Each structure stands twice: as structure tokens, then as C-alpha cells.
Amino acid sequence: MADRDYPHIVVPPPGPKAMAIVERDAAWTSHCYIKEYPLAIARGSGVMVEDIDGNRYLDFMAGIAVASTGYGHPHVVKAVQEAAGQFLHICGSDFYYEGMAALCERLAKLAPGATKKRVFLTNSGTEATEGAIKLARYATRRTAMIAFKGAFHGRSTGAVSLTSSKARQHAGFGPLLPDVHHVDYAYRYRCRHCAEKPACTMGCVTSIEQDLFARHLDPHDVAAIFVEPVQGEGGYVIPPPGFLTELRALCDRYGILLVFDEVQSGIGRTGKMFACEHEGVEPDILLTAKGLGSGMPIGAMIVRETIDKWQNGAHGSTFGGNPVCCAAALATLDVVEQGAMANAAQQGERMLAGAKALMAKHDCIGDVRGVGLMVGVEFVKDRATREPAPELVHRIVELAFSRGLLLLGAGKSSLRLAPPLVIDAVDVDRGLAMLDGCIGEARGG
Ligand SMILES: Cc1ncc(COP(=O)(O)O)c(C=O)c1O
Questions:
Q1: CA 360 to centroid of ligand 1, rounded, Å
Q2: Which of 6, 87, 251, 351 could form a disulfide with 56 if both were Cys (CB 3.0 to 4.6 A apart)?
Q3: What is the pLDDT of residue 31?
Q4: What average pLDDT is seen over the chain?
């Protein structure tokens, strides 16, 4: 397309200016940062990211599913600029401003289900998880938590106790929160309960009762089950229909709270405002963050009124619900509701079909799954054994970067395709064509 000046590589990345930043960063930033590849951004626009050396990339990862409205969306930027010009802070835990009340009202009304909700605003997804852990304990006066293998809920000591993504996220930090139990997620491609069966039998959910509750844990000690309606860091795993419904029923049998972590899957990414709406299940607590502020740090814990029992002063946050971030979130929701969410559904179908076509062509792809613009492509060494191929994913991501496509892995050996929700068909096709070339070369090389 003549009017698109990306992808465009002028100097093999990292170019000299990027290298200078990488070296400076390496000298002074904490060792714990992962740094996927040496992208040093200078600016962005829509689905295009430009690095400091003038290389332009097509972004298929949205800054880890955050740049929901793309880079520099004029409606969001204007809202941020106007809010910043008014006041940067007053502390929403203690004082009032319209943006906070407006955002809480809007999120409460957007959340699935007919029951009245209340909203607590946070700086991040982790802080939302942390709040939910505290509230679940407080509201139920129970202590145990159930989460899923492969889950990612954050990295603070409480949230990371629920996370079960990579061992190094726990190593050296113990003891973590006691009484956290990890059970199997509905990961159809790697399910040990019903892999051999023609259809999912929800064995992962029934085993919670038949195994965990029967042998190890009194269900009446369980405060909450935390679950991602689509597992994000775990590999963009889409559970079969019925999974959330079964979990809801299980929770209702024992008075357990059901917490949906929609930090990654929420705010239109799956083609609905929240992924749980695809199954029509209402949680007790819903967590969101990432795409909510288009990159400004804001998250939310949306709670059924009947669960929001804690006493005044029991919880709070100095920066949570910062006025500039509230403005960004309100503007983001405008963009999402006025077209980006519908676009995510439409382009998501195109992306999924395109990824399936790649699977038909490349036998190193073992599974493709997706809902909206959350598409997972799982690579294997051998389709029969399903042995993961993490090195191949790594090579593909590196090659794509060198050619001007930003990708990101997830799980053991999957790629997550998660572009900004404003991507169009031309860029979906161009990105997939680039991915095709990278897979071919990575396998040959
Ligand atoms: C599902 C989910 N929950 C929680 C988090 C933590 O959010 P944050 O990094 O904003 O603290 C993430 C981040 O990747 C996530 O994907």
C-alpha cells in the first residue's frame, strides 16, 4: 500500500541509537527486567511503532496487549492533555473528582450481569488482583484460593502466589501466600483429562470436586477461584464453551467467590467488552487493566455490590484512579465502544482464519486458537508428540523484529497475536504474510 510507510527497516535493528540506549539501560536498570528484544521506541501512530533509528514496525503485540486504541489515538491523547492541564493529582481514595466517579459508574454499568456493581480503581493489573485477594478473604472470612496452572495474575507477593506461569517468578521469594491450590486449566490441546476424547468433558472442573475437594481441601475454606476467561501469558488458551459456566456452578454450590481476571482479555480485545460475555457468565469480581487506559496506568476491580462489604478505610491507593488515567480510560472506552471492539471481532476472524491457513502450510504449528484479537499459535517439534518448540518461537520473534514485525511469545511455545484493536484487514494480511516468511526461514535456518 502506497500510503503505508511501515514496515520499513532503514538500519538492521538495533541501530546505533538503539544500541546506545540498550547499553545505558543495561548498566543502570534492575537485572530483573526481561527485555524481549532490543526495540527502542521513539514514537508510534496507529499500529505503527517507530524506533529511535527510524525503523518502522507493524505491531502485532500492542505493548503486551495494552495499546488497545493504537499509538497516539487523537481522542485519547486529547483527553490526557486536557486532564493534565487541569490537575495531575488529588488522591481519589480521599477526595473527589468527576473523572473517577464517571469511570467507576461506566465500568460498573459495562460489567456483565444485571447485579449492581461497585468499582475500585488501581494502578495495574497486579494491584487489582491483590485487592481481590484481600476482598475475597474479607467478604468470605475464608483463606484458601484456587487458581489455574499456567495462570498469570501479577507479581506482588499475593498475586504471584496465584500466578503459575514460570518457576523463576516464584524462585527465592517464598514462603508465598499459604493455601493457594493450582488446578488444571481447560487447555484442550494439552488436556490430561479428556485429550483422547472427541469433545471436552470438563474433566478439569469435575476434578476440583472429585480430587481436590475430596482429598485435600474443604470447599468451605475456599474464598475464591481466580480464573482468566482466556489464559493470556499461559499461551492464549481459549477454554471450551461451558468452562466458565461449570466454574460458576461449582462456586455457587460452596459459597466460593468467582473472580475473572480480564486484565489481558478485557476492554474489547475479544470482540466483546469482557471475554466472559461470550459465555454469559457473571463473576463476583472482575479485574481489568492493560487496555483500559491505552497505555496510561490504570486498572479496576469491579465488584458485585453484595460482595463489596469491606469497611471504610479497609483498602485504598494513593495513585489508583489518577485523574489523567481516568480521562485516558474514559476516552479509550469511547473508542472501544464506538467501533474498535466491533473491529476486533471482525479482524479477529480474519486473523484466526489466516493463522489457520499458516497451520495448514507449516507442520511446526500444532494448534491455532483465538477469539477476537487474541490469537494463539502454538509451535511443536512434532505434531504427533506435541513436543513444544520454544527455540523455534524465539527464532521467529527475532526474525520478525529484524524485518519490521513486532511479535511476542506466550506459554511454553506459542505466539500471541494481539495487535491494537484498530488494526485493519490490510495490516492483518501483511503481518500474517510476514509471519509466514519468518516461519519458513526459521525452519530452514
Ligand atoms: C491476566 C493478567 N493478570 C494480571 C496481570 C498483571 O498486570 P500488571 O502487569 O498490570 O500488573 C497481567 C499482566 O500481564 C495479566 O495478563
A1: 32
A2: 6
A3: 97
A4: 97
Per-residue pLDDT at 339 exceeds 90 = yes
Q: Give the residue whose CA is nearest to atom 7 of ligand 1.
A: 125
Predicted structure pTM score: 0.98
255 inside domain: yes
User: In whole angstroms, what is the distance from residue 333 CA to residue 101 CA?
Assistant: 15
Confidence (pLDDT) at 1: 46
Read off the pLDDT of each residue in 215-223 and give the average, rounded to a whole number. Answer: 97
Ligand 1 pocket test, pick from 129, 153, 285, 296 with the greatest ligand atom count within 8 Å of Cβ, gives 153
Q: Are residues 290 and 370 in the same domain?
A: no
**Domain count of the chain?**
2
CATH of the domain at 245: 3.40.640.10
> What residue owns the CA closest to ligand 1's atom 4?
153
Residues 244 and 156 in one domain: yes
Domain end marker among 268, 290, 321 = 321
Q: What are phi and psi of 432, to 5 degrees?
A: -65, -35
* Domain-located, residue 372: yes
Mean predicted confidence (pLDDT) in 240-268? 98
Q: CB within 6 Å of ligand 1 — which residues?
A: 124-126, 129, 152-154, 228, 232-233, 261, 263-264, 289
**Distance of CA 223 from the midpoint of ligand 1 (Å):** 21
Are the CB atoms for 305 and 284 separated by under 8 Å? no
Domain that includes residue 367, residue range: 16-72+339-444
Q: Do 258 and 284 meet the contact criterion of CB atoms below 8 Å apart?
A: yes
> Does the structure show a pLDDT above 60 at 2?
no
* 189 within a domain of the structure (yes/no): yes
Pocket test for ligand 1, best of 237, 260, 290 (most atoms within 8 A of CB): 290
Write the CA distances from 369 to 225, 260, 382, integer angstroms: 24, 20, 18
DSSP secondary structure letter of residue 396: H
Tell me, yes or no, whether 68 and 94 share the same domain: no
